[in-house]
Amino acid sequence: MSISTTSSDPAIPDLGGVLLPRVARTLITAYVDAADPAPLAVVGTAGAGKSRVLRHLFAALRASGAAPTALVAGAEMDAAPGGVIVVDDAHLLDDALLTALSARLREGTATVLLSTRPDPESPVLRALLEDVERHQPPVLLGHVSASDVATFVGGTPTPASRACIGAMLEMTGGLAWLTAEALVLHGDVACDGRCDHEEISRSLFDLVSHRIDSLDASVRRQVEALCLDERGALENASGPACAAGYDAGLLQRGGRTVPVVRDAVRAHLTAERLLELYFARLVQDAASVQALLGGATDARVASALLVDGDRELSRDPAKAAELYRAAETAGADADVLALRRARAAWALGDIDAAGAFVDVLLRRADEAPDEEALDMAAAVWAMRGDLDLGSQVYRGGQPRTPESRAKWLVAATAAGHPDPAAEPTSAPARSIPTAHGVSLELLSRGLRASLGADAHAGVSDLVRASEMYTASGSDAPLPELPAVLAALVALHRGEPVVAQTALDAAIAGEQGGAWARPRLLLWRAWVAVQLEHPAEAEAALHTVATSGRPLSPRDRFLADAVELGFTRRHGQPSELAPVWQRAQGSLLRAQIDLFTLIPLGEFAVSAARLGEFASVRPQVAQAERLLEGLGQPALWAAPLQWSLLQASILLGSPEELTVHARALRAAAEHSALAARLAHAGRVWTEVLTGEVDVDAIEDAAAGLAAAGFAWDGARLASHGASKSSDRRVIARLLACARQLHPRERAETTAPAEAPEAGPVMLTPRTTEYKSVLSEREREVAALVLQGKTYAEIGMTIFISPRTAEHHIARIRRRLGATSRSDLMARLRRELDGDPRGGAADPDRPRKLG
Predict the structure, then answer these.
(1) Torsion of CA 756, 758, 761, 767, to 10 degrees
(2) Residue 763, pLDDT score
(3) DSSP letters of 133-160?
(4) Distance between CA atoms of 255 and 247, rounded to whole angstroms?
(5) Three-state SS for 24?
(6) Mean pLDDT over each residue of the chain, to the nearest integer
(7) What are the backbone angles phi and psi of residue 592, rounded to the nearest 5°?
(8) Which residues of 445-460 are buried (b: 16+ CB within 10 A; e: fewer)?
(9) Residue 274: what are its φ and ψ, rounded to 5°?
(10) Rounded Cα distance, 66 and 60, in Å
(11) Cβ 178 vs Cβ 211: under 8 Å
(12) Helices 597-609 & 573-589, crossing angle to 10 degrees?
């Protein structure tokens, strides 16, 4: 492309070499062609061509016979009445001169033609501009478009030249003076699309830097800050500074930056000025500062990065991790960073990375390890599912503070080791209580109480410990969360509502921070399963699955146990086996501890139902050895013994049933839950031998439900009904079973796509298929296809054999079946069209003996 510089009148200064917006050129032409001069304002940023336009108009007025008078700062206003007063850079005049000029204009004794920067600070000048603009629109300069540039260069633009113009405008942000300079650097030659725009941009750097250096110091710092960290600087930028940067032709309106200006600042800014901006907090992004220093080490930058990382750790751990990484590049000590980087990785759910960072500290043999490092290492092992190794970390490090020793007790107790408090220590006494310290003291006391004969005080202490820990706001790692311990002891006491309350409060208070939320939600899902709240359980699992956080091996084991428990109670017969297949991986990786006995119990019962109990025997043996090492604490042993008793019923093993029933009777003296379970176990054994005492069955079933075992209570009542021939007894027990475990399922909408975190969320049920059969009839139909008798169907879904027979007769009529084979074929077609085709098949005991 080539620039046209032709002029039609040698007496008037040529504007062909000035890059102007098309609207501005039209207004200038109209002004020159007008018969009489009128007031006019020319408004534009520095370098936009205001003075050139004003000289052009001044000369045009003279050529037309007028006698314009130029007014400059400090001069007297001696224009003749009715004459034209021309003022360049009106924003530089004092208010007295501007007031006199405004008075002449209002009196009609002078026509004012002026130029000024945008948005002047002087209210007198703003009032004068309003008066001038009442006569005609101002000539606005500063920004140009592609069509303006195409008109300026002349000729018909080719595709290559249009692309070239677009690239230049993107580079300059459309600022007229920068675009004009870029065109000069481009040269007066036709563009063939091969010009080097990066070279043109670099050639503008010195020009831009010179203009920045000429600014007032405060404005210069603000422009530089915006070019380094636009988002952060805009949050703290002052309006006058942004306006001054715009007036100088270096920023867009509102303080937005221009690419070539931004690149020039980054290329020419010295390290000293860069650090000055950062330490003045005009630039917030310390990692960018370190990158702009070219990766050079600087103790001041490293220190600043550490401070920024510490500030972001709790609210944005990902950003904190980046800042710590940049601090290491800037020269921060690796040992100082190791624990910080471990904390950031822990908060992000990257357990292995947290372990790798803390191992850097623990490998040093020349000094005692930092207790915070011990806490981190022990928590990492706990989340990996091995609290025995977590306890070994403390045993090797011998922590002295009460907080770390409380966490040691949690790990040691879970692993079945003696109370570490028995080992003498010179731990310093705490003189000033803190919420964090008090919470861990209460946690220690409550956990010790749970191992004794009376655990009632333990529940109270653990609930208070959870509340205090939440109040402390701590997100430090520890082997187990206080809320989980409180919930576990409540569940082992048969108080699921207490467990629910403790977990809900911890979730609402964000106990432990981001890393703790999945574990709290998973235990909340388990409690919901025990309380017969399937929708709540699915909602909690869905939240975990869609959180985007990876599950640790320990949490994966718990998540699989929750899904097994849900599916066994609320799912179809065909659904349990696939869940079990997925869950076996977490079972193989699990290191059983005191706090995983409840999930292990669910694995045991599900395995027994599927004929896979052999795969869970090693973990059961490990749990029994652990309990033996702790002296068989009644509170902790009872729920597992009950689960193993249920597994024995499913396996048809009277020998094992007797062992677990005897264990529950032994624990009954010290545990109210064990006493209730032992009573229910005795009644169940009587039912299995054919003895049906309806009052005893109802009492035992209600007792199970009150302790959080409603599903088992329903099964007991159902089995009692299956062993009776008395219709009134059958009806009464089946009504009891339906009341304890309603045959309702949570209906939800399937998510758009499955989460990547793994099979945590249960497969939702939809209701799109329209069947001629009712929900109950579909359940009966599925059981008919499985070959079950009327009695077996009744026992499975809590109805009498006679009712099952009536259902089948109604199904036959609705489907129009003419024979048994025809009925079976029609049932298969009917259920194949329904994604919920199978019916629930709860745990049916095998015949003992």
Answers:
(1) 70
(2) 41
(3) HTTS--EE-SB--HHHHHHHH-SPPPHH
(4) 11
(5) helix
(6) 82
(7) -70, 135
(8) bbbbbbbeeebeebbb
(9) -60, -45
(10) 9
(11) no
(12) 130
The amino acid that residue 467 corresponds to is: E
User: What are the helix (H) ranges across 64-144?
Assistant: 95-107, 123-133
Is the pLDDT at 683 greater than 50, yes or no? yes
Cα–Cα separations (whole angstroms), residue 426 to 400, 405, 565: 7, 12, 46
Report whether pLDDT(129) > 50.
yes
| pTM, 2 dp | 0.61
Residues 726/795, Cβ–Cβ less than 8 Å: no
Q: Could you say which of 1.10.10.400, 3.40.50.300, 2.60.120.10, 1.10.10.10 is the CATH number of the domain covering 775-832?
A: 1.10.10.10
Nearest CA to 785 among 819, 817, 813, 821? 821
**CATH number for region 22-140:** 3.40.50.300
Which of 322, 282, 287 is CA-nearest to residue 304?
Answer: 287
How far apart are alpha carbons 226 and 749 in whole angstroms? 47
- pLDDT value of position 762: 47
Q: How many residues does the chain have?
A: 849
Q: What does the block give as tokens for 737?
A: 């079973």
- Span(s) in the chain for CATH 1.10.10.10: 775-832
The sign of the dihedral angle between the CA atoms of 121, 217, 93, 253 is: negative
- Tell me the C-alpha distance between 465 and 485, whole Å: 9
Question: 3-state DSSP helix/strand/coil percent for the chain, to nearest 5?
Answer: 65, 5, 35
Residues 404 and 582: their CA atoms lie apart, in Å, by: 37
Question: Greater confidence, 30 or 10?
Answer: 30
Count CB neighbours of 262 within 10 A.
20
CATH 3.40.50.300 residue spans of the chain: 22-140
Q: Which long-range contacts (CB under 8 A, 24 or more apart) does 128-135 make?
A: 128/90, 128/98, 128/101, 128/102, 129/41, 129/43, 131/39, 131/102, 131/105, 131/106, 132/39, 132/40, 132/41, 132/105, 133/41, 135/38, 135/39, 135/40
Most confident of 171-185, 212-226, 677-691: 677-691
Region of residue 60 (phi > 0: left; psi between -120 and 50: alpha; otherwise: beta): alpha
> What secondary structure letter does DSSP report for 86?
E
Q: Do residues 82 and 100 lie in contact, with contact meaning Cβ atoms separated by under 8 Å?
A: no
Q: How many whole angstroms separate alpha carbon 439 and alpha carbon 399?
A: 18
The answer on pLDDT for 30 being more than 80 is yes
Which residue is listed with tokens 């020998």?
655
Q: pLDDT value at position 491?
A: 95
Residue type present at position 644: L
Which secondary structure element, helix H or strand E, spans residue 41, and what is its range? strand 40-43
- The answer on pLDDT for 136 being more than 80 is yes
Which of 82, 77, 72, 86 is CA-nearest to residue 114?
86
Report percent pLDDT > 90 for the chain. 28
What residue type is 65 in one-letter code? G
More confident residue, 272 or 541: 541
pLDDT for residue 209? 85
Beta bridge partners of residue 40, listed in sequence order: 113
**CA distance linking residue 513 with residue 635, whole number of Å:** 30
State the pLDDT at residue 223.
81
Kindly state the average pLDDT of the residues 533-556.
91
